[in-house]
Amino acid sequence: MIDPPQKPQRFALVDALRGIAAMWVVVFHVFAGNQLTNLEVMLPNWTAWLVDMGYLGVTVFFVLSGFVIAHSLQRQSTDASSLGWFILRRSVRLGPPYWASLVLTIVIMRAGLPSLGVLLAHVFYLQDLLRLTPLSPIYWTLGLEIQFYLMFALLLGIAHRFRSESTDRRSLLIIFTGAALVAAVFPLGLVHEATLPAGLFLPRWYSFLLGAFAWWAIDGTMPRATFYLYAAALVAGAVHRGDLDADVALLTSALLLEVGRIGKLRDWLNWRPLQFLGLTSYSLYLVHNAAIGVTLSVLHHLTPDSASWELFWLLVALVSSGIAAWIFWRLIERPCNILSRGFRPSTAPA
What we know:
Radius of gyration: 21 Å
Shape: globular
Largest sheet: none
Number of helices: 14
Distance between the termini: 8 Å
Strand content: under 5%
Mean pLDDT: 90
Low-confidence stretches: 1-5
Number of strands: 0
Order of helices and strands: HHHHHHHHHHHHHH
């Protein structure tokens, strides 16, 4: 049964952080193409460092995903049926825009159609697990997100199956304590990512869990001290290894937790440009490489190579990415979001 769509409440801080992370990744990819070399050498050291760290925007995405999913599932049943509907909603929301971006990428590449096997692997987010060359370097994160959702839903379902009553949280805490310990072995350096199959979610699982645990610390499912004890252990290991991902994951999740504790998630960073970026962040992530490629290719042939012109290229690339993202969101992502809200168990008698 499909109920009428219900518009969800939004956290302004979460949307703003999404927008900032998305634009950070976009700037990183603009410079990663080595077409702004004159501008890059003139940047102050701190600016160049900030650009080079743009890949960390993906870590912010993972934390936000865990936070939002834990919040979304807080008041609904976690039996197999409800979790199945949840996975269906996520698939309807995320899948069609991703598939549309595959078409866009293939057209922009102008390199001919990929083989059917490669295309199907991408459709089902399996290209990295199957060690295939991705059609775009951005798609690896989507494969991990899908694994995060499936594993989180599976663990919730197991916890639901073994709880003694609806208010019993012991099975939930036991199961996710085990999940947290498994996730911790990677930032602590006890197991190296290279020992696992490529494209497996486990090395990044801790960042998603930190987001989920931040929400659980807000709603009382988990003690706040437990969250910080776990986060501190991860960061200590990451600092020892010189890994910034865990530091960014801790800062993001701790910010969500503390702002949530004072009840300001819907107020902080509620600035329209940031909210626009947050609203279109998934579309921006999906289309920005294509938009950047076209923009820089055209400008490179029309204007001379110099730092001042490359600064102009950068600004145009950012604006064109934003415009392309808005069009993509309006035509594809937004309708999918609206459709996905209707996929839930009906509360009315069948």
